[in-house]
Each structure stands twice: as C-alpha cells, then as structure tokens.
Design brief:
10 helices; five-stranded parallel β-sheet; 279 residues; 14 strands; six-stranded mixed β-sheet; Rossmann fold; alpha/beta; 2 domains; Hypothetical Protein, Haloacid Dehalogenase-like Hydrolase, Chain: A, domain 2
C-alpha cells in the first residue's frame, strides 16, 4: 500500500540565494510545484536565509512555508503565519566600536546594519548598491550613533579579495576567543558579523526543539560557508552543485546546480525513498 503522506514529520530547510533561487533570483516553476507536492504529502518546509523579513515578502506567495523560518543567517526564528518572533540572538553593543574602527581602517568598504526589520546603510559602495537593488527595498541611511542597540547582524560589502584582507585583519587584530561575535562569508562580496550565539545551525537546533520533532527527520540544503553548520546540524545535509567546495566536503549528498531546479530533484529523490526508510 502506498503511503498517503510519505513526508509526514519530515522538515526540509532550504537556503534561498544560490540554492532555492536561481541566478536571476527567481523560484522556478519546477521547484515551486515540487515544494507544494512535498507539503501536500505531509512535509514541513521552511527557509534558512541571510535575508530579513522584508527580503522574503516578495516570495511568500510562491512558497508553501508551513514551519517557522530562520532569518538573518540564524539570529532570528520567525513564524510568518503568526507574525511572531519565536527566538533571537542579537549582537552585543561591543560591535559598535569594532565597526567604527573598521570603517576608519577600510574607508571604501560598504557597511550595512540590520535592526528592527530594517537595513541601515552606514557606508555605501557598488556592492551595497547591488544588494539594495536585489533586495527590492530602500534601506535607511544613518550614522552608527542613530541605530539603537540590538542589531541582528552587520554586513561588510566589498570585492572578495579585499574582504579577505578585511577578514584577515579582523582575525589578527579584532576578534579573539573572548569576542562575543564572529565573521562568516554569506556570499563572496558579503562578510557578515553575527553574535556567537547565532548561526543557521544553532537556529536549526532551536527550531527542532520548538517543533518537537526528531533530529532524524531533518534535511537541510545550502550552498555557501554560512550554511556549513546548518548542514552539520541536520540528519541529511545536501549541497547544490554550485556550492562552495568547503560545504560540499561536509554534505552527505550533492544535487544539481541551483539553475537546474535542485529542490525539485531533492523532492523527487525523497519521494522515491519513501517506499522504504525515509531517512
């Protein structure tokens, strides 16, 4: 007898940029229909992204999200259905002096701060301009003194090679074992600063607790360095073919490129596995 709900209690968690979205920042028909089928057959689906709430709104009509989402690269778990924050881990105020120092040391670097559901621009360059256009909303221009404490994250935006120099400088001169924050690349041109208590992996473990599901029922999909601990936190970790090589090394499986409807291929694979043991 064929199981009517083969994906019951399975949680599928997908990164957005570079994973669920194609290179044009679109959700393909194949991926959308596959996710609708997954949810219809009992699965739980959500996203884990560096984006904030406003960065998700344009996609919500196309996404059958039925579990709380992980936003800001793991500093927030948000229930879109209830419009409620379930968990958050924010940057300490110590990060202010760090950003002031970095802006003086690297004056051409773009700097974005995320607070209260809004992006604030401290320093602009071509990478922050690209980010603004892609996100499809207008950030607020502000000085660092104008933004209240309680930031979700900060982003340093610049060419990748220059950001590698910034990262090296931070590790050698700014961050030590006692620092309450860390840095991670979410994209080659974005180096993010997050609380040490916030990451996609930490948030996924908290989401598992909130939902009261078994760890063995969790599948995570990603493409970049900020997805590594999420991949490790899931029972099955999947990389897309365009993923960073370091992520591929820790993933259990590698599926097609994000431009080749990778999520639909994953759902198809899970469907075939449902005849036997799922995970």
């Amino acid at each position: 007898m064929i199981e009517q709900f083969p994906f019951k209690d399975i949680l599928l968690v997908c990164d957005m940029d570079g994973t669920l979205l194609d290179s044009n920042k679109q959700i393909s028909r194949e991926n959308r229909e596959a996710l609708e089928y997954f949810v219809e057959k009992g699965g739980r689906f959500t996203i884990a992204t560096g984006r904030m709430e406003l960065g998700i709104v344009q996609y919500m009509p196309q996404l059958p999200i039925n579990a709380p989402a992980i936003l800001y690269n793991g500093s927030l778990i948000y229930d879109f259905q209830k419009k409620e924050t379930l968990w958050c881990r924010l940057l300490s105020s110590d990060v202010r002096s760090v950003l002031i120092h970095l802006m003086e040391r690297f004056p051409q670097m773009g700097v974005e701060v995320f607070y209260g559901g809004q992006m604030y621009l401290l320093k602009e360059n071509d990478k922050t301009d690209m980010h603004r256009k892609r996100a499809n909303f207008s950030p607020r221009r502000a000085s660092i003194e104008e933004i209240p404490d309680g930031w979700n994250k900060a982003i340093l935006a610049w060419e990748h090679e220059k950001l590698k120099e910034v990262e090296k400088y931070i590790l050698e001169n700014v961050i030590d074992a006692a620092s309450p924050f860390y840095t991670v690349f979410s994209e080659p041109v974005f180096l993010e600063i997050l609380s040490k208590e916030a990451s996609k992996g930490i948030a996924l473990k908290e989401l598992i607790r909130i939902l009261g599901i078994s760890h063995s029922k969790v599948i995570a999909v990603g493409d970049n360095l900020n997805d590594i601990d999420m991949i490790n936190a899931a029972d099955i970790g999947i990389a897309v073919d365009n993923a960073h090589e370091e992520l591929k090394k820790v993933a259990d499986y590698c599926f097609p490129h994000n431009d080749n409807h990778a999520i639909s291929k994953i759902v198809e694979w899970l469907d075939k596995k449902s005849e036997g043991s799922m995970v």
